[in-house]
Amino acid sequence: MYGPSKRTRRATAADVARLAGVSRSAVSRAFTKGTYLDAEKRERILLAAEEIGYRPNALAAGLQGQQSNLVAIFVGDMPNQYDKEAAASLATGLNAAGKWPIMIGGSDAVARAAASRVLSFPLEAMILRSGSLGADVAATCIKMGVPVISSGRIIEQDGVDNICVRNREGMREGVAHLIKGGCQRIAYIGGPSSFSSAPERRAGCLDALGGLELIAECEGLYTMESGYDAARALLKERRPDAFVCANDAMALGAMTYLREAGVCIPDDIALLGFDDIEMSGWPAFDLTTIRNPIDDMVAAITELLHRRAMDPAKEGEVILLDTKLVKRSSSRRLLPDR
Amino acid sequence: MYGPSKRTRRATAADVARLAGVSRSAVSRAFTKGTYLDAEKRERILLAAEEIGYRPNALAAGLQGQQSNLVAIFVGDMPNQYDKEAAASLATGLNAAGKWPIMIGGSDAVARAAASRVLSFPLEAMILRSGSLGADVAATCIKMGVPVISSGRIIEQDGVDNICVRNREGMREGVAHLIKGGCQRIAYIGGPSSFSSAPERRAGCLDALGGLELIAECEGLYTMESGYDAARALLKERRPDAFVCANDAMALGAMTYLREAGVCIPDDIALLGFDDIEMSGWPAFDLTTIRNPIDDMVAAITELLHRRAMDPAKEGEVILLDTKLVKRSSSRRLLPDR
DNA sequence: CCAGAATGTGCACACGTGTTCATATAGATG
DNA sequence: CATCTATATGAACACGTGTGCACATTCTGG
């Protein structure tokens, strides 16, 4: 042990070459498919590499025009459950596709600064999964030549690929289900207007109402607490027979308040959410909701990543995902289903 | 537009130099603090860089002995809520510390393979946040000269830094609180024995019982469903007055079953969890639990990262985190407290 | 005015890898 | 045997950057 700092030096191809008694080129070839190299020699090299813990340095390889496989995922501060679940699935999905997802998150200022700095890596793409901000981040990426994939919010910009769920159609189907079940006096708990999903889901609700108007309405923050508060506020007004919520977190908050208030679900008031987060399926809640399909989203993103790699100059496209109405007990009225 | 593939070429320092009419060295210096460079010239360079969207290539810089700031986070399949919350906080925390967290996750085989391949990057550390597996991954990392930080499970191996919560002491305090509140017939829902936290927490429970024995006991999977099933199974046995659960997810599952069964919490049966996941604080649950401090964990990890950077050859150390008993209504007995 | 320090700048090297190129050897084909 | 092809291998280059080095210029103090 000559120098303490030397101890941690990473093994290099030259080290392996020396140990195996071959040229450095041979070592490189040993790790590359489809090259001419004596089989016995290759084995000897791989063995030597294993012995001293060598692996080709991805940084140096990337410098050589090799695919970096690095991908950044920009999540906001992930306030609600759905964002967390989506981020986790996305990361593991990319992983399975051989990509290396770098997570960028935290509070607005921190995340935005990090998003800017991470561009010093030759990213294969920047994936935006933050409902609210992101348009300026996208602009910076495009300028740097880094492809952008926006999920959950459509960004109108050259070269930006978009993935979005059919918010309006989904909500329309959900509310239609409530109406078919006998609900007539519907109150709506909406999301913050800074999220593009909020007005779309509200529009879907109005679609299903036909000419009818909402009994009452207010705007929440997509959090459970705000759903709780909203339910309390709306209950004071003209007695509704259904709460339609722009996402599951708020629906679960509303459910909590209604139970505390002694309201029977769904007989007195039916409840509808949006997203189908894991918790909504738990027996304790059993919330009827509209599934925002995470697996489809992940599949679409890896697909877009692939297409972009094939043709870096291709036009940006928009992929729309279908929702699925998940009927559970929070909407199972005892009234005759028409 | 001469060639379509040329279009996406990343801007290089030489491009900036040409545009700004300076040497390439000057460009490099413009982006480095503490170098001699005419102020007016630096500004001109930065402006030119901004114009063509240039940023120093982290790959090439890393090749130069520069810190990579890359960190891998190995999470298992994140079956339970606490893992998801911890992973999210860890990622954003590292972010704020100027690190780039690469998430590695998914099913066992996929994650393990990915963990091996990610070592081709010059990682500053591999952070293990998977309760069960990980020892073999750690061995590979150490061999490659990549420092390992294990969180939630202590790995006895040279050069591995460990962070762990005081499971035993925490659980002891929690159960003592129940006993002080009048509980005498305690049933225990444990975690899978493959997680090192499971036996520790159980030991803490037994500590608090003094000579007493558990009324009943079974082993769950740290999931809500298994907690639900366990509660049903245990309720058939000699009537307990408290359920102690090895984590919050199982406690919430148990709570769900008990409510369905018409059992009053906490008057008939008190409930104790472990972790203090976000949901436990929601009014719908209001679960008494032992906080597994995520913020402290993140702080400890960044601290260890720093120390390791200062002295790469230092010995591995063990940091133990203190829990905090969070008293909520699931343990608030009407019986006189003492 | 002079010596020395402080500041500014370009050249050239090193980092670790993949790959082209030239060359050498062995095997097949006529 | 002569040619041609398939296989094997090392030398050399390129990737984009940070920085040591040598040299030029300006400033400071006597």
UniProtKB/TrEMBL annotation, chains A, B:
The keyword Transcription regulation applies. It comes from Marivivens donghaensis. Keywords: DNA-binding, Transcription, Transcription regulation. SMART domains: HTH_LACI. It comes from the Bacteria. Residues 11-65 form the HTH lacI-type domain. This is LacI family transcriptional regulator. The keyword Plastid does not apply. CDD domains: HTH_LacI, PBP1_LacI-like.
